[in-house]
Design a protein that fits this description.
Layout: E1 2-6, E2 8-17, E3 21-22, H1 32-42, H2 46-49, E4 63-69, E5 78-79, E6 82-91, H3 97-115, E7 118-127, H4 138-151, E8 157-160, H5 166-171, H6 195-214
Parallel strand pairs: 1-8
Antiparallel strand pairs: 2-6, 2-7, 3-5, 4-6
Helix pairs in contact: 1-3, 4-6
């Protein structure tokens, strides 16, 4: 697969502020951890609010996942007054990220009212996806030829949820394509790359550059 498009990225830091107290007297505090957990459950509504699907991408829908969780209190018998977690949103380019942020803010407002806490939302990264590279762009066609010549296989174009440097080029209206042969173990405990793939990829890029050089007078 040759990557010609990316989803928009929103990484969000969610800071819930309640009131710390002893766990045996919960009525004297406001449990920031429990309130934050309730917000995570409410965020299950996001796929329904942004339901479009685009077969160019894998997966074809927008995704909204709670990921990193910071430590709150160090001991078991304390109700935390502060809690921080992070949300990773990969959104189809059709949707403005401001609309997604507004929907999350609305859910947070409900939790604030229900639990008597305050929730701060801080974007850690917020990048609206640029226009995709055309499948007919010269770089895509040249890359397809190189992959076929080296690996003897056909390619297809598609979009990804992960971010690459190609987005920065596309924002400046440069057509960009991303490709490599991978072991598909990204962010897994046994993430690795095969030496044979690295050598094959080097051949593809050498072939790509040489075929374009040979066309010049």
């Amino acid at each position: 697969m040759i990557e010609i498009a990316e989803k928009s990225i929103l990484w969000l830091r969610v800071h819930t502020r309640g009131k710390q107290c002893h766990a045996s007297r919960p009525s004297q505090g406001r449990n920031a951890f429990a309130a934050a957990s309730r917000l995570i459950v409410k965020l299950d509504r996001l796929p329904g609010l942004f339901p479009l699907r685009d077969p160019l991408f894998e997966p074809p829908a927008s995704t909204f996942e709670a990921t990193k969780k910071e430590a709150n209190v160090p001991n078991i018998n304390t109700i935390p007054g502060d809690d921080v977690f992070f949300l990773d949103c990969r959104v189809l380019p059709t949707y403005p990220l401001q609309d997604v942020l507004a929907a999350i803010r609305a859910a947070a407002a409900e939790v604030e009212t229900e639990w008597g806490v305050f929730i701060d939302l801080l974007p850690v990264q917020m990048g609206q996806a640029p226009e995709p590279t055309s499948p007919e762009a010269p770089v895509v066609k040249a890359l397809r030829r190189a992959v076929k010549d080296v690996y003897g296989t056909r390619t297809r174009v598609g979009g990804v949820g992960g971010g690459t440097v190609a987005a920065y080029f596309r924002r400046e209206a440069y057509p960009a394509a991303v490709w490599s042969k991978l072991a598909a173990t990204a962010h897994q405990p046994n993430e690795y790359c095969l030496i044979e793939n690295m050598l094959g990829n080097a051949k593809v890029f050498a072939h790509l550059f040489l075929q374009e050089t040979e066309k010049r007078p």
